[in-house]
Amino acid sequence: MNRSKIAAIAAIASAALVLAACSSAESETSSQTSPEASPETTSETTAAESSPSEESGVAVVATTSILGDVAGQIIECAGGTVTVLMPIGTDPHDFSASSEQVASMINADLVISNGLGLEAGLTDSMANAATDGANIFEVGPLIDPIEFGAGGHSEDGHSDEEGHSDEDGHSDEEGHSDEEGHSDEEGHSDEEGHSDEEGEDDHGHGSLDPHIWFDMTRMAVAAQLIGAELTEVTGNQEYTTCADTTAESIRGAEGEVRALLEAVPADQRILVTDHEALGYLADTYGYEIAGTVIPAGTTLAEPSSADLANLVKVINAEGVNVIFTNAAQPSALADAVAAETGRDIAVVPLYVESLGAPDSPAATYIDMMRTNAQLISEGLQG
Amino acid sequence: MEWFLDPFALGFQQRALVGGILAGLMTSIVGTWLVLRGMSFFGDAFVHGIVPGVAAAVVFDVNPLLGAAVAALVMVLAIEVVNRQTSLSEDTAIGLLFVGMLALGVVIISRLDSYSGSLTTILFGDALGVTASDLVTQSILAVLVIGAATILYRPLLALSFNAEKAEMWGLKPKRAHAVLLILIAAAVIGSFQSIGTLLVFGLLVGPPATAALISRTVPRMMLTAAAISVFSVWLGLTLSYHLNTAGSATMAIVPIVLFFIVLTVTRLRPKRRESVNAHA
To answer: What's B43's domain CATH number?
Structure first.
């Protein structure tokens, strides 16, 4: 008994020692890494930059495949490498990074992120990477994001439960659309999700829609902002000029998309989608989002039985004949809703949150938007 | 060499390691008593039982540690009530609370827009998201848990091997039992942020169970369990870095695999003297 008692104390004392050593080592590392790791990493990278191949030295990490494509075009033209964190077909709301990928963010010259809460699964690790010196550039908050529900609404208030602010959506929409100083709310959308329970209209007013790429004009601006940021990081003017070229090609393709989407008669421009992802498209081309299978701006939510019952009602009341889903994530719920309407409803997958595979018709951002516009236009008129 | 160094070259990786080690030390000390007393099922229920507290904390934006503590208290009290008011066996009471609390947690969190994301983080943890202030909280809890376990070593030992005799010796086994519950709660609460409520159970039971196979005294079992925990956390994070797998889950699976390796090795060499288990 006595011997084991002594041994116990020894054991626990040594455990405590290990612990103390760890925690003190920790406090040192943590206090050191924050202030010191950043100069260290930057000095490493500047060393790489000042080497002869200045342009090809820039290392950029992009979170989504869409941003990766846009940034990739700029970098292809001016030199450097882009690493895309999310593989093709990944749900950006859900994706979380591996240790190696967080390390790549810290070691990159620039991390290009969509922001506005799109990369919900990455929030913690990006914040942590930023503590360790990652240079994160969130493009979404800079291009005048719209609020959820700003683009889609309808008269009969059917979708109250879906978090659209239908009741007052009308009067709001004009006043809101752009100028209202959203910038001070930037990036909040993630937290705002909570307020959902307090009042349905919170969603419409409080949080900003992160699916910015559905407005190609905004994406062209985003490309230019990325170019300017790369010029600032590297001191190389070429990134800005290359970004202008990229922006130009996006604006050019926007004309085609506009033609396709505006060919749909105004009274047929009614969308039912898998989640609230097409707000920018609806806002830009005068479409109405009648309802969504997942009544939220993220795929991470789940509809209740009442939400789905309501959606079926809405689809039948509006005479909607097609539900647009997400090619990357086939949803059994959309099929269930389509079947429940009792009518012949087409379920058309769009490329919503990721590019398609290299051999798909959505291998690049521009192709993706063109393909989506074709699918929407054909789906609604077909 | 790089294989060993790369996974911990950066601050967030070091924080993940330290967070995991602190969790491992706490859980192996507390887990030793859990395994010796045959309370593993209770421990399993416990780690699920705090889910609604954490979920409510996320929804109402208060400190998750507070939510977890309240949920742990509710859980223990409810199990006591069922035990005293009915003749049902204790595992029924634990089972009722286990599933009830877990389901309540999911119901609460389903009110959130980022439902599955939040749930994943609560259940499986986010080792790579551990912040410096998380580590401070964890260190304080670790010091408290390990300190209390040291001071109360004798009553806890008596409780584990013979509660009736402990009563006779004036070691107040009921009080020791209550303290043990608090220690389990503190260890789980101090660990779930880095490894998740579901997987913390791996560290709570895996290392002590493995240690029980090869240790002859309780202190040695604790020490072995602590060493196994630290090793598991380190190996888990290293493997997750190189294999690109989820950090917390890889950490949790290592001690379980180790258990079976040690079991196989000890059974192949049956000369070993009796283990702690046999004493119990």
So the answer is: 1.10.3470.10
Strand partners, A347: A323
- How far is Cα of residue A352 from the mean position of the Cα atoms in its chain? 10
Residue contact A300–B115, C-beta within 8 A: yes
Q: List, in sequence order, every residue forming a beta bridge with A288; answer none if it has no partner.
A: A270
pLDDT digits (tens, 9 = 90+) for B119-178: 777 888 888 888 888 899 999 999 999 999 999 898 888 888 877 777 777 777 788 888
Nearest to A248 by CA among A70, A2, A67: A70
The conformation of residue A144, written as its DSSP 8-state character, comes to -
For residue A59, the cross-strand partners are: A81
User: What structural domains and CATH numbers belong to chain A?
Assistant: 55-143+215-249 (3.40.50.1980), 160-201+255-381 (3.40.50.1980)
Phi and psi at A277, nearest 5°, equal -115, -20
Query: What is the domain range of residue B149?
Result: 2-279
Residues 172-211 of chain A with CB under 8 A from chain B are 190, 193-194, 196-197, 203
CB B68 within 8 A of CB B53: yes
* Residue pair B142/B22 in contact by the 8 Å Cβ criterion: yes
Contact check, Cβ <8 Å, A8/B219: yes
Nearest CA in chain B to A6: B219
**Is B48 within 8 Å of B98 (Cβ atoms)?**
yes
> Residue B72 to residues A73, A309, B42, B181: CA-CA distances in angstroms?
53, 37, 12, 9
Count the domains in chain B: 1
Task: Flag whether residue B9 sits within 8 Å of chain A, measured between CB atoms.
Answer: yes
**Total residue length of chain B:** 280
Looking at residue B270, its pLDDT comes to 64
Cα radius of gyration (chain A): 24
CA distance B151 to B171: 13
Cα-flanking dihedrals φ and ψ of residue B272, to 5°?
A: -50, 140
Residue of B114, B218, B229 to mutate, interface with A, max A Cβ within 10 Å: B114
| CA distance readout (Å), A307 to A72, A314, A319 | 40, 10, 18
Residue pair A38/A132 in contact (Cβ under 8 Å)? The answer is yes
Q: Three-state secondary structure along B93-161?
A: HHHHHHHHHHHHHHHHHCCCCCHHHHHHHHHHCCHHHCCHHHHHHHHHHHHHHHHHHHHCHHHHHHHHH
Give pLDDT, residue B215.
Answer: 93
CB contact, 8 Å: B222 with chain A? Answer: yes
Residue B45 scores a pLDDT above 70: yes
DSSP states of B67-87: HHHHHHHHHHHHHHHHHHH--
Evaluate if residue A144 carries a pLDDT over 80.
yes
Tell me, yes or no, if B247 comes closer than 8 A to chain A by beta carbon.
Answer: yes
Please name the member of A12, A96, A297 whose beta carbon is closest to the beta carbon of B146: A12
Tokens representing B247? 């950090």
Query: Which of residues 115 through 144 in chain B touch A, CB cutoff 8 A?
Result: 115-118, 120-121, 126, 128-132, 135, 139, 142-143
The token pair that represents A329 in the structure block:
């994530």
User: CA–CA separation, A246 vs A70, rounded Å?
Assistant: 7
DSSP 8-state code for residue A36: I
Q: Tokens representing A370?
A: 């063109």
pLDDT for A3-48, tens place per residue?
Answer: 544 444 444 444 444 444 443 333 333 333 333 333 333 333 333 3
CA distance B148 to B153: 8
Residue A20 Cα distances to A16, A24, B4, B22, B25, angstroms: 6, 6, 23, 10, 11
